[in-house]
From TrEMBL:
Top-level taxon: Eukaryota
Species whose genome carries this gene: Cajanus cajan (Pigeon pea)
Name listed for the protein in its UniProt record: Reverse transcriptase Ty1/copia-type domain-containing protein
Length: 55
């Protein structure tokens, strides 16, 4: 079988892969942005929630 080089990996299983001189960074920025748009929460403001520190 033949194998093709598709270049540097950018997206895999909803993970965004960024290559730099310092290393490889993995994030889900695109996924959670999509999630916020789909749920119509993109314009919402974050708020803090109190929680016991022992949890």
């Amino acid at each position: 079988f033949r194998v093709n080089d598709l270049g540097a990996l950018k997206y895999f299983l909803r993970l965004e892969i960024n290559h730099s001189v310092d290393g490889i960074y993995v994030s889900q920025h695109k996924y959670y942005l999509e999630l916020l748009v789909d749920s119509r929460m993109l314009g919402c403001k974050p708020c803090s929630t109190l929680m016991h520190s022992s949890l």
